[in-house]
Amino acid sequence: MTSRPLIAVAGNPNAGKSALFNALTGARQKVGNYPGVTVERHVGKLGLPGAGEADIVDLPGAYALEAHSPDEEVTRSVLLGEGEYERLPDAIVIVLDASNLDNHLRFALQLIGLGLPTVVALNMMDLAKRDGLELDSARLSEELGVPVVETVAVRRRGLDDLKARLDEALASPREIRAGEGPEEDPLALQRHARRIALAAIVSETPVRRWTHRLDSIFLHPVWGLAILAVVLFTIFQAVFAWAAPPADWLEGLVIAMGDWVARTLPDGLFKSMIVDGLFAGVGAVVVFLPQILILFLFILVLESTGYMVRAAFLMDRIMSHAGLNGRAFIPLLSSFACAVPGIMATRTIDDPKDRLTTILIAPLMTCSARLPVYTLIIAAFIPDRPVGPGIGLQGLVLFGLYLAGIVGALVVATVLRRTVVKGGGSGFMMELPKYQMPQLADVLIGLWQRARIFLRRAGTIILATTVILWALASFPKAGPGESQVEASIAGKIAGGIEVVVAPIGFNRDISLALLPAMAAREVAVAAIGTVYALDAEEEEGLQTLEERLAGRWSLATALAFLAWFVFAPQCISTIAVTRRETNGWKWPLFMTGYLFAIAYAAAGITYWTAVAFGLG
Amino acid sequence: MTKAHPSDSLALDQLAIGTSAEISSIDWSLLAEGDANRLKHFGFDEGVAVTALHSGPFGRDPLAVRVGRMTVAIRRAHAAAVRVIPRAA
Questions:
Q1: Looking at beta carbons, which residues of chain B come within 8 Å of A66?
Q2: Cα A132 to Cα A103, A128, A431, distances in angstroms
Q3: What is the pLDDT of residues A33-92, one digit of tens each?
Q4: ipTM
Q5: For B57, which of A191, A224, A427 is closest by C-beta distance?
Q6: Using CB atoms, which residue from A99, A320, A428 is nearest to B73?
Q7: Do A430 and B73 touch (CB under 8 A)?
Q8: Residues contacting residue A614 through CB under 8 Å, at least 6 positions apart
Q9: Which residue out of B17, B37, B70 would a mutagenesis test of the A interface target, given it has the greatest number of A Cβ atoms within 10 Å?
Q10: Phi, psi of A214 (to 5 degrees)
Q11: Cα–Cα distance between A406 and A350 in angstroms, integer?
C-alpha cells in the first residue's frame, strides 16, 4: 500500500479523457489489466505543486453509473469504493466535452453526487468555440457546486490550473454520500443536466459543423465505401512497402551481430545455442517490428480521428447479414493487429450472443503475428513484379490472404448464428464522435506500448521456445553423413506429426515448426530459421532464409502452408484470453477445434489444387 | 403552440434525411431493456430536437441521427419506436 493520493479520471466516452490523462502523465504511465477482468487499466504518476506525487488512474469511459458492460462495471466499482479493483480515489477529475454538455452533465451529476472531492475539466473548449458555443464556466461551477477548469488537453491548456484545483480538492474534507446519485431516474437526471447546460451556455451561433460536412463524404453510400476500400488497401500496401527499408536495416544489424558473435565465441555448444538458437530464431522475428508498428500506427490514427466508428457505420448492414453488428467491426479490425486486444474490445458489444460470435471469429482476422510467416513465404515464392500501377504481385497475394480470412469469418459467423449461437441479436447503437486531428503524442505513446509488448514477447515466449527447439534439434548428435535435424529428438517428434500433415503437402520442416508455433505463430519463422541454421550445408553458407526455402519447398507446399496459417488457431494467448472472456473452457476448445479443422481442409484443398495445376 | 395531435407525428425512421423534428413520444416497450437504456443515455427524451443526418449504404440502414448535441448511429428498427413531429422548415 502507498500513502500517495489516488486521483481517478472519469467521464463519458469521447470526452477526451485519455488525451487529458496522457497530457497529465506523459510517458509516465503503465498499461495493465484489472484483476479478473480484461479491462485495460491505465495508471500513471502526476506531480502536484502542493500534495507532491500522486497516482492517477484513467477509468473506462461510461455514460452512467449503472453498469451495462464490464468496462462500466470497473468504473462503477472503483468510484463507489467497492474495492475489488482499486482503492477508493481521494479525488475525481470529471472530464466533460464542452460542446456536448447536455449529455455529459448527466453522468457528471451522478459523479458529483458521490461526494468525493471533485474537479471538473471542461475539455475541448477550442472545439466548442469552433461549433459556435460560448460557455460561462464560472456559472457552470456555481450550478454544479464544484470547481470547473477550462482545458484543451491536446494543447496542454489549463493543466496547471487543473493541478492547482486538485491540490485544493485533496486538502478539503470529504463528505461521502454513497448511494445517493445512482438511484436517480435517468430521464429526470437528463432533464436536470439539460437545465444546467442551458444556464451555462452564454450564446450559440449556428455554424455549419465540420463533422457534418466530413460525414457527408465519409458516410456517403458510394464515396464512403470507396474511401473505406482505399483506406484498407493502403494499409496493406504500406505494411509491405514502408516497412521494407527499416526491416532490411534491422535484418542487417541482426546478421552483423550474429557474425560478430560467431567470430568471437569459441566453437562449441554455447556458441551454437547463441548463433543458431538466439540469433537465427529471435532475430528472425524482431525483424518484423517495423511492419507491426506500421499496422498499429494506422489503427491508432484511424481510432483517434473518429474514422473507425464511421467504418462500423458503413459495415453494419453487411455484418448484420452474418448475424453480427457494426460494433463488431472495431474488435475485428483491431484483430488485424492482434486477436487478444480484439477479443478484449468485444466488451463494448452489449448483446452476449453477438459478442460470443465476434470472439469466435476474431482469430480469423489476419493478425500481425501471421505477417512474419506470410512475408517470409511470399518473399521466397512469389515473384516481385508489378501487376498494375502501384500494385505489386506480392502485395496482391498478401491482400488475398487477408481477404480469405475475412470471407472465412463471415461464412463461419453465418453458420454459427444458425447453429451453436442461435437467437438474440440486438442492435447497433453507437455515438459518432466529432472528427479530430490525431495527436502525435497520443499515437506515439500507443506505439511505444505496442512495441514494448511485442519485444517482451520476443524476449520471453519466443526466446524460450526457440532455445528449447534448438536443444531438441541439436541432440542427439548426428552421425557422419546423417542430417542433424533428422537424427534429433525434434526430428523424431516431427516424424509423428508428419504422418498427419503429409496428406496436405506439409514436409518435415513444417511439421517441426508447427509444434513450437502453438505458442505464437511467428515462432514458426523462428523455428524454421533455427532448423535451417543447424542443418545448413556447406554451400548454403550465407544464404538468406528465403533462398534456402525457395530451394527446398515446392510452390504447392508453400501455398498450402499459407492457407493453413489463414485459419490455424496457433496462439496460446488467444486461447487463454477466450477462456477468460467466456468464463470457461467450452468456447476456447470449440474455437480451437473448428479452426484446426478448417485449416486442415483449406491447406489440403490448396495443395491438391496446386498439384493438379502442375505446381507440385 | 397547440398541443400536437398524434396524426402530426411520424416514426423517426420515416423522417426524411436532412430534416429536423422534435421527439413527441417514445414507446419504450418496443425496445429491449439494454437498448432502451442506451437510448436514454444518448439523451433520447420527449421534447428533444432530432435531425436525420445520414443513412447507411445498404438498405439505408443504420441511421445517423443528431439528438441534442450528439450524433448517434441507430438501426431503423429502433428508430421506429421514437415518434417525432417534424419542424416547419
A1: 37
A2: 18, 7, 21
A3: 565 555 677 888 988 888 889 999 999 888 888 877 777 888 888 888 776 677 888 999
A4: 0.90
A5: A224
A6: A428
A7: yes
A8: none
A9: B70
A10: -65, -40
A11: 23
Across the range A219-225, mean pLDDT stands at 92
Element (H, E) at B10: strand B10-11
Contacts of B44 (CB under 8 A, 6+ apart): B23, B26, B67, B82
**Which residue of chain A comes nearest to B56, CA vs CA?**
A314
Judge: A222–B64 Cβ closer than 8 Å, yes or no.
Answer: no
Sequence-ordered list of residues with C-beta below 8 angstroms from that of A55, at least 6 positions apart, any chain:
A2, A4, A5, A6, A7, A43, A44, A45, A46
User: Could you give the CA distance from residue A409 to residue A402 in angstroms, rounded to a whole number?
Assistant: 11
- What does the block give as the cell for B43? 439523451
Fold of B11-86: SH3 type barrels. (2.30.30)
Q: Which helix (H) or strand (E) holds A461?
A: none
Number of A/B CB contacts below 8 angstroms equals 110
CA angle at A407 for the pair A402 and A411, rounded to the nearest 5°? 150
d(CA A558, CA A225) in angstroms, rounded, equals: 34
Say which of A63, A211, A216 has its CB closest to residue B41. A63
What are the pLDDT digits (tens) for B32-71?
Answer: 887 888 888 888 999 899 999 999 998 888 999 999 888 9
What is the least distance, in Å, from the CA of A214 to any CA of chain B? 12
Helix ranges, B1-89 (H): 33-41, 76-79
Give the burial string for B21-60 (b: 16+ CB within 10 Å, else e): bebbebeeeebeeebbbbbbbbbbbeebebbbbbbbbbee
Q: How far is B6 from chain A (nearest CA, A)?
A: 22
d(CA A369, CA A290): 12
Cα A51 → chain centroid? 36
- Dihedral sign for Cα A552, A557, A561, A562, please: positive
Query: Helices A307-321 and A210-218: crossing angle, nearest 10°?
Result: 40
Task: State how far the alpha carbon of A166 is from the alpha carbons of A75, A117, A119, A144, A161, in Å.
Answer: 20, 8, 7, 16, 9
Q: Are A412 and A364 in contact (CB under 8 A)?
A: yes
Going from N- to C-terminal start, the domains of chain B cover 11-86
Output the nine-digit C-alpha cell for A19. 488525451
A337 close to A367: Cβ distance less than 8 angstroms: yes
Return the pLDDT at A569: 85
